[in-house]
Every structure is written in structure tokens, then in C-alpha cells.
Design brief:
362 residues; alpha+beta; three-stranded antiparallel beta sheet; 13 helices; 44% helix; 18% strand
Length: 362
């Protein structure tokens, strides 16, 4: 009996596919898209639908290649036009990605949001921006979670509002140039006083007067409208004005001086909060340095945090069983600093001698 080899003919395998799923009227509808194109379509970067879709076909299960029924499509979407249905699924559907891909996307967007927050905010006391590490820690403290359906800028503005409520941080002012005729300079100055603008420089050339000022970003649009009364105009020079000179981390070099100043002079609540935040961040940075030192050790070495020493990997278990490690472990739990091996032995001997003297007490 002869055997014939049966092979599939015209079979189209969907490999390297990003699946977008939408549930309607209790049914599941899926479309097959190219990876990394769905987000580009939703952010209006990609406008060619053929560059996004693998095929203009609606499935009930892409992985199994099961097509959706025409009557279900008509009932759910009110049309049988596959292109319109694919566009609706692209806009409203949920992008199916693996756990690692989703985690990578969220962490990347989290860093983008932190970067925007860092660029748009300053420390109100030093007028310098916080570091990226500090912004990320503050975002974790307010329990911020990334929403993949919103843009990074929208979420960054929401984060700034929450941070202003809990921490000493504020929006960086805009550096703008106001230009108006000399005859209307008095009216322009009155408006600047209303807006609490800080005048940096003043220049007069011909019949025009120009003022370089710092204003709050929230009043920029109202400035453009109200400057029409004095025939003036506004030009943005810098979207975030920071203090010049020194790096942004200089504000944390003299934390002890800031704390002493807070205690010696009757300070405001904002100044006290700034000093406390700086002190906390310095402690966190020091602990991070200790951890990084431990990670920089050789493969055959381990760091004992209780005893503050480096031990070889082979003898690490024996060290943990020693009386020195157990004594320092107890001290660490009670909030006491570690002792050296000699100091530990002396303290243990004194404790044992005191315990022995109690046996002779009457």
C-alpha cells in the first residue's frame, strides 16, 4: 500500500506578529499587525494603514488562524467593511504583548516621564533641577504607575501636580521676552506686576521696548491675549529657567549646614521640608554607594552588612556562624553600629564576667 505525503498548500504562517484584541457583544475580534507599528499608529506617527496591518483580515483567533464570521462582524460593528473594522480595533483594542515586552515598554516610558519632570521642575530654594535618580525615587514614593494609553507628557504634567502637593518642588519658570511700543511701556509694567513676573533685563531700541522676564508657565496663554491691549507680543526664550553655575547636585553637598540653618533660624515649613528631603536623599545615596561597592566585589567575595567587612565566598558561611557575626547581628537589630572582632570579644567577655558575678550575689 503506497503512502502519499500530504503537505499544506497555500498556508500562510503569521510569524513575528503583534496582535490587537477587542471584545464586543461577547465575541473576541483580533487583527495581525507589525511589531512596534501599533503605538506609532496611535500616536499619529505612522499614517499608512498598510504599514501597520499584516493583512486586512479580522480573526477570532490569530494564533490558530480562525477567521471571524461575517454575521458577527456586522452585528458588532454595524458594517462588513474590513478596513473600517480594522481601524476601530486598532484605535480601541488592547495590544497583546508578552510580560517582558510590557515590562520593558513601561520602564522605558517611566524613564521618559521622569526626564520630562526633571526638565520642567526645580528646587524652589536653590532654583536648580533635581537629579534623575531623585525624581524617580519621588515618583515611587507617590506610588505612580505608568498608563500605556496616555502620552509621556500628559502623565508628566499629572506627576508634577502630585509632587508639588507632597514635596518641595515647583514648575521651572519660562524665560520670555515682552516687546511693546515705548508709549505703552507703563501699561506693560502694570501687567508684569499682576503676573508676578521677574524682570531680568530691559532694552530700548527705536520706538520699541523689550523686557526679558521669568513667568509661570500656566499664565503664558493669558499673557498672549492680554498683551493685545498694549500692542505687545511675547516670545519664549527658554522653557525652563534654571540657576546658573554649578551642577544640580551641588545643593546636596552641604546638607548638614542646611539642617543647622533650619534649626537656628525660624524657618518656614517649605525650608524645613527641603532640608529633610535633602537629608533623606543623601542617606539613600550613601546606602546606594555601599550597595554598589558590594556589587563591584569579585565573584569569590561577599560583603557582610552586619559586620561591615568583605569575606571570601568559601568562609562566608563559617563567618555567619561565628559569635562575632551573631553579636553584630543583634546590635544591628537594636540600631547600634557594628564592632570589630577585638571589640566584640572584649564586650562578650565583659558580659560573661558580669553574668558570673551575679551567681555570688546574696
Amino acid at each position: 500500500m503506497s503512502r502519499t505525503l500530504v503537505q499544506p498548500v497555500g498556508q500562510k504562517r503569521l510569524t513575528n506578529v503583534a496582535v490587537v484584541r477587542l471584545r464586543k457583544i461577547g465575541q473576541r475580534f483580533e487583527i495581525a499587525c507589525f511589531p512596534n507599528k501599533v503605538l506609532s499608529w496611535r500616536t499619529r506617527v505612522e499614517k499608512d494603514l498598510d504599514e501597520v496591518l499584516q493583512s486586512h483580515t479580522v480573526y477570532s483567533n490569530v494564533s490558530k488562524g480562525v477567521l471571524a464570521k461575517s454575521k458577527d462582524l456586522t452585528k458588532a460593528f454595524g458594517t462588513d467593511d474590513l478596513t473600517k473594522i480594522c481601524v476601530e480595533i486598532l484605535e480601541k483594542g488592547e495590544l497583546q504583548v508578552s510580560g517582558k515586552e510590557r515590562e520593558a515598554q513601561l520602564s522605558s516610558q517611566f524613564r521618559d516621564i521622569a526626564t520630562i519632570v526633571m526638565e520642567k521642575t526645580i528646587n524652589p530654594e536653590t532654583r536648580r533641577p533635581y537629579t534623575m535618580t531623585m525624581i524617580e525615587r519621588l515618583m515611587h514614593e507617590i506610588h505612580f504607575a505608568v498608563d500605556p494609553n496616555l502620552t509621556s507628557k500628559e502623565q508628566a504634567l499629572k506627576v508634577i501636580k502630585k509632587l508639588i502637593e507632597h514635596f518641595p518642588i515647583k514648575r521651572a519658570p519660562l524665560t520670555v521676552r515682552f516687546t511693546a511700543p515705548k508709549s505703552n511701556l507703563a501699561g506693560l509694567m502694570e501687567k508684569l506686576d499682576e503676573w508676578n513676573a521677574i524682570v531680568i533685563s530691559k532694552d530700548e531700541s527705536g520706538n520699541q521696548s523689550s523686557l526679558v522676564c521669568e513667568i509661570e508657565p500656566s499664565i503664558l496663554h493669558s499673557c498672549e491675549e492680554r498683551l493685545k491691549d498694549v500692542q505687545g507680543r511675547v516670545e519664549v526664550l527658554s522653557v525652563s529657567a534654571h540657576a546658573e553655575g554649578g551642577s544640580s547636585t551641588d545643593q546636596y553637598d552641604n546638607v548638614e549646614d542646611n539642617v543647622e540653618k533650619v534649626h537656628s533660624v525660624p524657618a518656614t515649613k517649605e525650608a524645613v521640608a527641603i532640608a529633610q528631603l535633602s537629608e533623606t536623599m543623601q542617606k539613600q545615596s550613601l546606602s546606594g554607594e555601599v550597595e554598589s561597592q558590594g556589587q563591584a566585589l569579585g565573584k569569590n567575595q561577599k560583603r557582610c552588612k552586619e559586620c561591615a567587612i568583605v569575606v571570601e565566598d568559601k568562609s562566608y558561611r563559617d563567618h555567619c556562624k561565628s559569635a562575632w557575626h551573631k553579636h553584630n547581628y543583634t546590635r544591628n537589630k537594636n540600631g547600634l553600629p557594628p564592632l570589630s572582632q577585638e571589640e566584640c570579644l572584649i564586650e562578650i567577655e565583659m558580659a560573661e564576667s558580669n553574668r558570673g558575678m551575679k551567681d555570688y550575689d546574696y
